[in-house]
Amino acid sequence: MSIEIKSRFPIFTEYPDLVYLDSAATTQKPDTVIAAITDFYQRGNANIHRGVYPLAAKATARFEASRDKVQRFINAKKREEVLFTPGTTAGTNLVAQSFVLPRLQKGDNVIITAMEHHANLIPWQVVCQQAEAELRVIPMSTKGELDLKAYSSLLSPKTRMVALGHISNTLGTINPVEDMVLEAKQQGVPVLIDVAQSIAHYPIDVQALDADFIVFSGHKLFGPTGIGVLHGKEEWLHQMKPYQYGGDMIRDVSFSNTTFAGLPNKFEAGTPNIAGAIGLGAAIDFLNAIDRASALSDLKHLQAYAESSLLALPGLSLIGTAKERTAIFSFALDDIHPHDIATFLGEEKIATRAGHHCTQPIMDFFGLPATTRASFSIYNTTDDVDRLVQTLAEIQAFFS
Question: Domain 2-21+291-399 belongs to what architecture?
């Protein structure tokens, strides 16, 4: 199935020798997403919500149709609970500043995990510093698994938010967010889940998950950059004040006072990324048109093949070996610097990532300056794994 899906991504036609193993950073885009964005700019470009002429009305309809697609895709209760943002980072910051900070007092706490991306760490760190509150961190093992007993002990009557990454972008760990949400709910603590790394491959049902907020980015869902989603429960969104101010998020304005629009508009100030939202809608259409269960099964088989193949290399060690994980592999190879590895791989048209992957605390925990990361998606094949492993063996020979 991977080969059939791969044919839908024009970049692999343009670069037939490309082995793209950086999907944790951003996914490639299928033909229909590219076509939808091009079509909007060629034949449908107009601003939305304001114009009454046909072109503007059509643009508005296409933009709002994408909101409906997101609602159905994540099973949101209401379309008004779906807010378009520039991405995961923007959605997290909105919740931190508009929901948590007004509720946060000296002595309160916010809980995150030891494996969070900086985008789900720094916003909470900053609001805690602003309010003289405590940032509590759920520790993890050397396998890259969270200490759930420690999590239970960290929850308290003064916990104002639990913010969890569903899947670690560095370790590939799949966290038991369902159980963690339930435990927080039993103590009346709201939860935000960053599903940026899971949304493309794993079904996300926000009503079943019962998190108060989820955030993700379109570009990790085979959609364009610059567009993302914040889903929030209606009761909380009504209570939150806007994070940004300007046009299209108002009901009435005078020099003495402004009243804001209802949901979702009050959180979408200014002209949004219209083409991005339409492209995101096309990405959802693309995923809905394939057999997602089969694609996920293929990815899991590829993950097992990649893991056994990588571990067969002498001198290679995986960073993070959780029992529940996905096809994201951070590794060290002998004493070769990750940047040298990634550069060498790049010369052989194999795209990986080297660095701390916006998770510096993870690198500190493992005592590493950086790792090389290979992350797989629905367009990868076992041939890609074989080329990666063969080239890594050549790198070992070169540096030895």
Answer: Alpha-Beta Complex (3.90)
